Amino acid sequence: MIDDPFSTPRETSGTLSCPFQGESITMLLRHADVRAAARDWQTFSSDAPFRVPIPSEEDVRSVRQLPIETNPPQHGEYRDIVEPFFSRPKDPAFIAAITSLIDAALTQACTIDSIEIVRDFALPLQSQALTHLLGLDISEAQRWISWGIHVFRDGSSKGQQLEDYLRERLAHAVAHPSNDFFSALHAASYQGRSLTLEEKLGFGNLTFAGGRDTIIHMIACAMHYLAENPPALSWLREDPRRIIHAAEELLRVFMPLTHIGRICPNETSVADTTIPAQSRVSLCWAAANFDPQAFPSPNQIHLDRKPNPHLSFGFGTHLCLGAAHARLILRTLLRLCAEKLDHLHIIAAEPRIEKEAAYQRTLGFESLHLRLQTREVAREKTT
């Protein structure tokens, strides 16, 4: 059974008031309400620099994240600029590159007695995968790995570290243009003009802030689940077509982003709760993903669950740009684990806990030590 800290308020009122940085924010908890709000950008606006993330990020960055902190039609025009990079997970060559990365990481992990999954497996894996997504040399991953985990949530100095890096890469793209992400930003046009430096920084900030920790914790949660549920490996191995539904179920249950913020320009009501004009609300993906009105037996993991209308990548106009990348990594990881591994043994696990005034939620792992046993080794032990 998976813990759901939002079950009571979701059932009784559909909302939960929670203070964040001294601001009381109404959290929308029901699947139907969250999805409707995500679709209705006029009522629930994303045109709120620094305030779309919760907690807000005025102290950790100096630029508006693009395209997420804009509304249509600007959002669509901005999104079109970087869409080609985030569509790469559909390309066979990209798929082969990611498969090779994950296969090598698992092979290496199996040669040692144990491995810490968060920092020594998932962080390098996603950093290297991100170089492929952005068209950069894989050596660039070493710099990102050196930043560690939660690098953009640990204070303004870490945020400045990212901004300094982005400025450096953008300057390099001006002097040495190529086919990479930063060169594309330099060459892009928006409404008939070149992007400003602030706009380029905004794209870069979102790409790294949104595309690192979420996937790192997704990988750790998936591997912990396989370790706790050994029959899942053989079940996936019996029919690889099961992996698609299994990945979606793990995304539903273990989504690493609890919620996202919106601003209500005018007074509005949701689930009999009045939200004053100019107030911020939370679209609580984590609560919506456990709503029994949308998911029968929501606290149980059913790897064959279908339909599975989870909201782990958002919904509507602002559907996550990195969804295809995340799905490719998780599906490939599950497939290769099923093919290569007999068991994943848990040695030690330290959950990462999100503690707020109104709720407490497990959000991945601070550390996770596993021992990976290959199917070959398992066969040798039985002969």
Q: Can you tell me about this structure?
A:
By secondary structure, the protein is α+β, with helices and mostly antiparallel strands. Helix content is 46%, strand content 17%. The protein has 15 helices and eleven strands. It has a four-stranded mixed beta sheet with strand order 1-2-9-6. Strands 3-11-10 form a three-stranded antiparallel beta sheet. The protein is globular, with a radius of gyration of 21 Å.
Short description:
46% of the residues lie in helices and 17% in strands.
Report the helical percentage.
40-55%
Fraction of residues in β-strands? 15-25%
Q: What is the radius of gyration?
A: 21 Å
Q: Briefly note the structural class of the backbone.
A: alpha+beta
What pattern of helices and strands is seen along the backbone?
Answer: HEEHHHEHHHHEEHHHHEEEEHHEEH
Shape: globular
Q: How confident overall, as mean pLDDT? A: 95
Number of strands: 11
Distance between the termini: 36 Å
Strand order, sheet with most strands: 1-2-9-6
Sheet with most strands: 4 strands, mixed
